[in-house]
Amino acid sequence: MMRIPLSALIGLILTSVYFLAAIFAGWLAPYGMAEVVGDVWEPSSAEHWLGTDSIGRDLLTRMIYGGQITIFVATAATILSFVTGSILGFTAAVAGGWVDQALSRMVDLIMSIPALIFALVVLSVMPVTMPVLIAVMGLIESTRVFRLSRAVAADIVVMDYVEAARLRGEGSAWVIFREILPNALSPLVAEAGLRFIFMVLFISTLSFLGLGVQPPLADWGGIVKENKEGIVYGIAAALYPAVAIATLAISVNLVADWILNRTTSLKGGRG
Questions:
Q1: For residues 108 and 100, is the Cβ–Cβ distance under 8 A?
Q2: How far apart are CA 93 and CA 103, in angstroms?
Q3: Which of 37, 44, 71, 204 counts the highest number of beta carbons within 10 A?
Q4: Which residues contact 166 (CB under 8 A, 6 or more apart)?
């Protein structure tokens, strides 16, 4: 029987709560996302559990919808980064030669520019829509995935079973998806957790700077921006989304660490 460590169990519970709240946001939110229901920065009450925000909207409702947008954008960008980065990284390792050099130098060029500055420059000249945000974040972060997947694949591609597959006449696609990918999943799963956390921080930072999710929509970073002036007056409205970002990041990291340890021990046991 599989025993889950306490830390991983806590991470699973918190992560599940956040994802379920994001999926069922329309049913859980007590008010409309942009509906003004009270005065500015009302304290917590039976009608408004977390109080109201800087223009009188229910803060709990904003948090639920903000979590939905934050998790959706971060998940979509993470998937895009892994699909793009891992395929290109595996291809570079399998093909070698000028293909490897061309892809690696292009990635080095992109990584030489800080990710946040790169995103701010691109978004300043493009319409800031949800698909554009996901594409920009996913493609920028795919460079990190490329480096990891290429390094892992470079160690796997010299193994005997890969050579045997090539001698059987299998093509590059077979080698990548049937030989390399299954044996590279463990580090990629751990990296997926870290990339997701970074995506949450990335979109929150962009929204706080005004180039992320645009009003009346909001993610957690946008809610911090909308209510940051209240901190001066001792109002905690900006702290709730900050706590949500921190707890989501920690919970996902606990789950990713557990999965990595479990898959590594299973491989060791099969050795």
A1: no
A2: 10
A3: 204
A4: 175
Amino acid at 178: R
Nearest to 221 by CA among 112, 139, 133: 133
Neighbours of 86 (CB within 10 A): 25
63 — alpha (psi -120 to 50), left (phi > 0) or beta?
alpha
Spatial distance between the Cα atoms of 261 and 15, rounded to a whole number of angstroms: 18
Rounded-to-integer distance, Cα 94 and Cα 100, Å: 8
Q: What is the pLDDT of residue 268?
A: 45
pLDDT for 24 beyond 90: yes
pLDDT over 80 at 133, yes or no: yes
What's the pLDDT score for residue 174?
81
Mean pLDDT computed over 81-102: 92
**What are the backbone dihedrals phi and psi of residue 57, each rounded to the nearest 5 degrees, phi first?**
-85, 150
**Which two structure tokens, joined as six digits, stand for 152?**
């892992």
Domains of the chain: 6-270 (1.10.3720.10)
**What percentage of the chain reaches a pLDDT higher than 70?**
96
Nearest to 88 by CA among 132, 139, 133, 162: 139
